[in-house]
Amino acid sequence: MKIIAVIPARYEASRFPAKLMQILRNKTVITTTYQNVVETGLFDEVFVATDSEIIFNEIQNHGGKAVMTGQHETGSDRIAEAVQNIDCDIVINVQGDEPFLKLEPLQQLIDVFKADDNQEISLASLKLKLHEKEEIENPNNVKVITDNNGFALYFSRSVIPFHREISYNVDYFKHIGVYAFRKHALLQFSKLEMKPLEISEKIECIRYLEYGMKIKLIETNFIGVGIDTPEDLEKARKLI
């Protein structure tokens, strides 16, 4: 089973343009992320998928591998274009603005497919238990509910499940956007039309569910440091 990692990387970002080219210590954010993923030793190959010549050249100039893609609405669609001619079985999507991703959650995602003898699982991802009311109600936190075997039932920006029976405690989980795909499922995903639920929620995982594919969620304690704003960049600089 050949396993690769792909880091989708846009130069433009609505909240923080050119964030991936900002400097952390003595390297850019995207180069830091790329090198950290390589250093996990989990992958046969690691690529950056980008529509930016600036990012493409940045990775190439540091001895890395990059693939130019067209414009895409989702990271999954960008990765699908990047891997269509790459020989692999499993594709791990690592966010370019998450330079501190740890080895353990990546290994957990890989192990899902190693244990999937019947090859039923199209996608594996991570979930994190939420405790604070403010975090649970925040629409920027995508919530996920699963069945007894850990397969996703639904993703939403709303509070799910709705806590009508207040005498019963219920757990809430945030979806962490680190994905592991079977290559054939990823390529199939990119050819499927967006349906109303995905369009309404703006959550690409819903497309898999709407077409009957299985998504396995693994609980993690990993809390990343995503760089979405200049303030996040300062936090990352202090952490590094």
UniProtKB/TrEMBL annotation:
This is 3-deoxy-manno-octulosonate cytidylyltransferase. InterPro entries: Cytidylyl_trans, KdsB, Nucleotide-diphossugar_trans. Keywords: Lipopolysaccharide biosynthesis, Nucleotidyltransferase, Transferase. GO terms for molecular function: 3-deoxy-manno-octulosonate cytidylyltransferase activity. Coiled coil: none annotated. Its EC number is 2.7.7.38. The keyword Heme does not apply. It comes from the Bacteria. It comes from Chryseobacterium zhengzhouense. It is an enzyme of class 2 (transferase).
